[in-house]
Amino acid sequence: MSKLGSIAFVASEAPAAQEALAELESRYGKAAPETADVIVALGGDGFMLETLHRYLQRGVPIYGMHRGTVGFLMNNYEAAGLRERLARAAPVRIHPLAMRVIDVAGSEHRALAFNEVSLLRETRQTAKLRITIDGVVRVDELSADGILVSTPVGSTAYNFSAHGPIIPLGAGVLALTPISAFRPRRWRGALLPHAAQVRFDILEAEKRPVSAVADFTEVRDVLTVVVHENRELALTMLFDPEHNLEERVLKEQFLS
Length: 256
Known about the structure:
This protein is α+β, with helices and mostly antiparallel strands. Helices cover 17% and strands 41% of the residues.
């Protein structure tokens, strides 16, 4: 960052995060997140996602420090030299997925996701879905536990656990990954251009109910779900140059 003014600190409820909050505010002072020039989030990846959603409209950079469980999106914690670290941090520009849902009652719901949008079966029976990409039906009927659309940032999270590909940040693609697919049995998903619009129609929705989840926003008993990347919304995350997100995504592909 070429210019660095006031810093606001926000923290999860975890004891380690609260201790770090007290230490950093005693060193660097307090600023309101609503007016600060940069926001420092203390916690794990879950708290970072909450922070991204909460301050998306502010448009200020967000720098995370790991004081939680999973810290893939976080920098290492160190109280000393924070202003210097922020000044040399590498920015990463990210865009969220926009999810539009129509449920079985005909109500419309909208939500954003920085990691992924996932569709999940609600009962013991498999979900049955039709998949349409940019107006073309690509899968007439998918029987599975569910399916997800992942951003590059989210590709190392739920997507990777579902055996989806890890995506380099600059690749310009999204991952479409089935979750425990039964039919078609050999289909493992697809990589889509980031501008693609993905539509899911739930087949036998009343017999086989499905929920849709955008990060941590869930809509139950859905009928139709449309997902696309919202290029009009953007947020900047900051990473230490020696531990930048691009390198972490690349490194993750070589871990056993």
